[in-house]
Specification:
CATH topology of the largest domain: Rossmann fold
Strand content: 15-25%
Order of helices and strands: HEEHEHEEEEEEHEEEHHEE
Radius of gyration: 31 Å
CATH superfamily of the largest domain: Cell division protein FtsQ/DivIB
Largest sheet: 9 strands, mixed
Mean pLDDT: 84
Length: about 250
């Protein structure tokens, strides 16, 4: 059987073929990009929203982005528009494989209700960012913090929120002990009221929350002490291995 013989392609001819191939590829890329940029954005996909409704996000960007050509839309501007919503921490905008506008959002996670100095029921995330309570379900279970001073200590609020988060951990049995919190002026101090007897409590913001509340549970296990709680003004749980009891005058 005779072997087929192929001629050797000269270097100049090979370079010409490669150059023409690259030109064709470049032309196709440019044409594809122009075709893609001229497409009308009509479909929106929102990911990561639990509280903010899809319709609210759509209405926010409707005039700027939807029914417009992709070349007329700046994705960074879309994200900035979305982040104007106080419930949203971050937003990233991109296009899906079918040309749809995809917005991935990160919402603020409420960790406590806040009653401010004007008596309004608001929400706070773990960074002490306070925002309106308009879309959280009314039966949403969160601890409540009362703020009586309009010029409150932001560090005190942050430490109170950290304390709240620590006792609300999934492995904790301390969640149902405290009824409410009252913001202290001193960030080292946590002021609370217990749920069972309505006793005012003083706790340390830097101390272990579970250890402090464990002392309270031990105290409440003593029936003799419980029978005399009506004479107690407050309990100070900040100290190691002891509880300071302040009696009503």
């Amino acid at each position: 059987m005779k072997k087929l013989k192929f001629g050797i392609i000269s270097a100049p001819l090979l370079l010409i073929v490669l150059a023409m191939t690259l030109i064709v590829v470049a032309v196709l890329i440019v044409a594809s990009t122009k075709w893609s940029d001229s497409k009308i954005v009509s479909h929106l996909v929102v990911e990561g929203n639990h509280y903010v409704k899809f319709e609210e996000i759509r209405s926010t960007i409707n005039d700027y982005a939807l029914t417009k050509q992709k070349k007329d839309i700046d994705l960074d501007s879309v994200s900035k528009l979305i982040k104007k919503n106080k419930y949203i921490v971050d937003a990233k905008s991109s296009y899906g494989i079918n040309g749809e506008l995809v917005i991935k959002i990160e919402e603020r996670q409420p960790v406590a209700y806040v009653v401010d100095c004007e008596g309004r029921l608001l929400l706070s995330d773990h960074n002490a960012f306070i925002f309106e309570n308009t879309i959280i379900p009314k039966d949403y279970k969160l601890p409540i913090i009362f703020i009586s001073d309009c010029n409150y200590n932001i560090m005190a609020l942050r430490k109170t929120l950290k304390f709240v988060e620590s006792i609300n951990s999934t492995d904790s049995m301390d969640t149902d002990i405290l009824l409410e919190f009252h913001l202290a002026k001193d960030s080292r101090l946590i002021l609370a009221k217990d749920k069972l007897y309505g006793i005012h409590l003083m706790l340390s913001s830097s101390g272990n929350a579970h250890e402090q509340l464990s002392k309270l549970k031990t105290l409440y296990s003593n029936s003799n002490i419980v029978n005399n709680l009506q004479n107690v003004a407050y309990l100070d749980l900040r100290w190691n291995n002891k509880i300071v009891v302040a009696h009503k005058s």
